[in-house]
Specification:
2 domains, PyrdxlP-dep_Trfase, 12 helices, about 400 residues, alpha/beta, Aspartate Aminotransferase, domain 1, transferase, single chain, PyrdxlP-dep_Trfase_major, about 15% strand, three-stranded antiparallel beta sheet, 12 strands, Aspartate Aminotransferase, domain 2, seven-stranded mixed beta sheet
Length: about 400
């Protein structure tokens, strides 16, 4: 195995060097080898891709669709995305000039940030949230401005946003909002979004709205931020969660043409284009599979209801999630354990894998994330083990 020569040992990008590994994946890997562990860690749907969607991918292969596609994505998929957004969320985008098909929502996030960030630019990030936002901002030379939402049921309020814009976030270029939220599962109502939009409107602030879990909402229908502030919103979505297509890696950006023209340059130089079979599968999902998420959503809701009640019965404070497939309980203060210590002990002593809250920003400290994208049998076993672990901690306190 070759070792990096000492003569080139210090050539790394100085913005990349300080960035650590993904804390979620790192912690999952750390505990994965514990024999008998029940993992409630990753946000990976436990459903299969619908058959008709798989068949579209196979047909693409059989039809020898093996050449480069247009860099923004095949026209049929971009049209399907445009139609879907118009029908479901009342937002209108020209498929030819205002939509880019990306390698998952992950690339959509990176491409969007790369397009706007200059060195030192501030980007506001309400936390706790998906940690990739902060890492991407830093790797691109920007400055993430974390806003703690833990005292407001994990939602950014207009008053707090005004305060941030007047102080630590003054001069910020954009704000990233993720809802339904990872790790909290919180959903913003239309009224809440309109109130935030009133603060942002006519300011030089872009909204990067990551709505990848929009098909997994259990109560009031999802409202897209783009519907209340279209001229300042970069909408990010994809098929990974709605159709259990995480491995197909199809996401998309929908935004005004002026932004898409620039983002398309970043996208084309970074990835060229997504794969043919995945794009045709995604087109089929959006054209003929809009009902596919219904059964998944019902199952997730049943799991959520079970977990939330069980956690509350055990004394864990929770904000009931209205979407996605996560619960974010608070670690009781009397346990006197930080999130990483709690989760490591839970894994080693009770054989239950969850994710420490500090993986989702500073505001996540003192919490842990449970993913219920797994079977009810696993969930029940995990909760039973958590109950015994909780009892053991309480016995030591008492």
């Amino acid at each position: 195995m070759p070792e990096l020569s000492k003569s080139v040992a210090n050539i790394e990008n100085k913005l990349v060097k300080p960035i650590g590994d993904d804390k979620i994946l790192m912690f999952n890997s750390e505990i994965a080898g514990i024999p008998g562990i029940v993992k409630l860690t990753l946000g990976e749907p436990d459903f299969n891709v619908p058959d008709h969607v798989k068949e579209a991918a196979v047909k693409s292969i059989e039809d020898n669709d093996s050449h480069y596609t247009p860099q923004k994505g095949i026209p049929g998929l971009r049209k399907a995305i445009s139609n879907y957004l118009a029908t479901d969320y009342g937002v209108n985008y020209d498929p030819a000039t205002e939509v880019i098909v990306t390698i998952g929502a992950t690339e959509a996030i990176y491409t969007s940030l790369y397009t706007i960030i200059n060195h030192g630019d501030k980007i506001i990030v309400p936390t706790p949230t998906f940690s990739i936002y902060m890492d991407d901002i830093e790797i691109l030379g920007g400055e993430p401005v974390e806003v703690d939402t833990s005292n407001d049921d994990f939602k950014l309020t207009p008053d707090k946003l005004k305060d941030v814009l007047a102080h630590e976030g003054k001069g910020a270029k954009a704000i990233i909002i993720n809802y339904p939220g990872n790790p909290t599962g919180v959903v913003y109502s239309k009224a809440e979004l309109e109130a935030l939009a009133d603060v942002i409107r006519d300011t030089p602030l872009l909204v990067i709205s990551d709505e990848i879990y929009s098909q997994l909402v259990y109560g009031e229908k999802h409202t897209s931020f783009a519907s209340v502030l279209p001229g300042q919103t970069i909408l990010i979505n994809g098929l990974s969660k709605s159709h259990a297509m995480t491995g197909y890696r199809i996401g998309y950006i929908a935004a005004p043409k002026g932004f898409v023209d620039e983002a398309a340059k970043v996208h084309s130089f970074t990835v060229t284009c997504p794969s043919n079979p995945a794009q045709y599968a995604a087109q089929e999902a959006l054209e003929n599979g809009l009902d596919d998420p219904i059964d998944m959503r019902q199952t997730y809701q049943e799991r959520r209801d079970y977990i939330v009640k069980a956690l509350n019965d055990l004394g864990y404070e929770t904000v009931e999630p209205d979407g996605a497939f996560y619960v974010f309980p608070k670690i009781p203060v009397k346990f006197n354990l930080d999130s990483e210590t709690f989760c490591r002990r839970l894994a080693k002593e009770a054989l239950v894998g969850v994710v420490p809250g500090d993986a989702f920003g500073d505001a996540g400290e003192g919490y842990f994330r449970i993913s219920y994208a797994t079977s009810m049998d696993n969930i029940k076993e995990g909760i039973n083990r958590l109950a015994k672990f909780t009892d053991s901690l309480l016995e030591k306190i008492n």
